[in-house]
Structures are given as structure tokens and as C-alpha cells.
Amino acid sequence: MPRSVGVETDDDLLCIRLETSPQCSDTERFRDTLSRQLPAGCELLNVRAADPKTSFQPCAATYVFAVRPQHLNDRLKARTKCLLASESLNLQRRIDARGGIRNVDVRPFLKAIEFDDKNIAVKCKISSAGSIRVEEILKLLELDVGNLATPIRRTSVQWQEA
Length: 162
Fold this sequence. Notes:
Layout: E1 7-9, H1 27-37, E2 56-66, H2 74-85, E3 90-94, E4 101-105, E5 110-115, E6 119-125, H3 134-141, E7 152-161
Parallel strand pairs: 1-7
Antiparallel strand pairs: 2-6, 2-7, 3-4, 5-6
């Protein structure tokens, strides 16, 4: 799944199509072989064989924003409650390089916003109608990248078979 510039990810899906061979029929052996080929820092968590006609579509994602302590305050928490209580959240979205803009209601794409001592976790819905963009989440929270202690992380993506 594509990610915005400057967004790190902990959870990605890799789909590859292989010609069946004796080495590929054993998923454990294949996982071990593939794991040895990955760059440092990449970890292969799971391998499974799927029907060749299967495709996977994302249906949800969670982004974590590590907010600097001075910005993780009651004002931000109140802002979050207001966002979640809203029936609609209309934003202007750039749709092409020529400067085309359209109004988009991003409220249907916000599933939850949760806080802990240092982070805000935003759970987003993804559908054929689209999703909310990371920069739009920041805008709604009235934060900018300078308010963050670390890069934004996409910590999970939920997939459905299509």
C-alpha cells in the first residue's frame, strides 16, 4: 500500500506470484529463503499460499503520531472529541498536479482517535470511495510535522481478500 513521504511503516503486505517448484511448495522453507534475502531491519512475519486469482484490498490502517509533550495537551484532546462528534469534516483536496481541487468529506474515513502518554493513534477506514490522507489528519488535529517527536508511523493495515 502506498505511503506518504516521511511516513514509516511497521506492517506491509507483499504479494508475489511464483511458478510452482519443489522449493516453493514448502512455505516454511520458502519463508526462510526469502527472509535471508531481505535488507537489514526488514522482518518477514508470515507466509501463506493463496489462490492465484486472489487479490487483497486494504480496508483499514492505523497511523501513530508521536506528539511532542507540549503539544499533547487538553486542547488537542478537546479538538479530537470535536472531530469524532462531527457528522462531516469537509476539506479541500488537491486532485492533480495542475492545481485541481475538490471538496471531500473525510469524516467517514475516521474510525477512531486514541491517546496514550506520548502518541495519538488514528484508525482510518479505507474503501473504494477512498480514505483520509496523513496530511489531512494533521490539518484536522491542527498539528504540523514540527509538533511531532518522531516520524509518523503506519503501524498496521487490515486487508480483505477480493
